[in-house]
Amino acid sequence: MPSRSLFALALGLAVLLGLGVYAYVAWDKAQPVPVEQAEEIADQGQLQLESIQQDLETQLEGARSPGEAEDRLDTMLGQVLFDKCYELTELHSAGPSAETERLRDKACEEYRLFVDEGVVPEE
Predict the structure, then answer these.
(1) Residue 7 gets which letter from DSSP?
(2) Cα angle: 108, vertex 70, 54; to 5 degrees
(3) b/e per residue, 82-120, with b = 16+ CB within 10 A?
(4) Which has the minimum average pLDDT: 55-59, 84-88, 89-93?
(5) Nearest CA to 89 among 79, 75, 76, 103?
(6) CB–CB of 119/113 below 8 Å?
(7) Residues 13-61: pLDDT tens digits?
(8) CA–CA gap between residue 33 and residue 12 (Å, rounded)
């Protein structure tokens, strides 16, 4: 009988300890962030935002106009590349395999590069 009450006491202490730890963690998370730390976090966020903005501007500078991409869609090569991508996508959907996936990915990437950047695939 004494082992039962000892077990109950140990279990009760473990539960109380767990609740205490939980309450401390919840209290600690609710504490405000010091001003210096908040300013440092804000500065880091600003640097990341500026970096992202610079990357986007660089991409936009190198991007071609949408009209050029649309013009490439209407070319004979654009249609051939689209058809190849579409047919291999259908083939892969009908019977998925590593080979059909590889061929589909290659064909669709060639189509995307041609339309977006004007890169003619090597054959």
Answers:
(1) H
(2) 80
(3) bebbeebbeebeeeeeeebeebbeebbebbeebbeeeee
(4) 55-59
(5) 103
(6) yes
(7) 778 777 777 777 777 676 676 778 767 777 777 777 677 777 666 665 5
(8) 35
CA 2 to chain centre: 58
Q: Which two tokens stand for residue 100?
A: 């059909």
Number of Cβ atoms within 10 Å of the Cβ of 64? 13
Token pair for residue 69? 């991409």
What are the CA-CA distances from residue 74 to residues 68, 70, 71, 78, 82 (Å)?
10, 7, 5, 6, 10
Question: Buried b / exposed e across 50-59, counting CB within 10 Å, b at 16+?
Answer: eeeeeeeeee
Question: What six digits make up the tokens of 62?
Answer: 């190198």
Q: What is the residue type of 112?
A: R
CA end-to-end distance (rounded Å), the chain:
86
**Ranges of each domain in the chain:** 1-31, 34-63, 65-117
Amino acid identity at 78: G
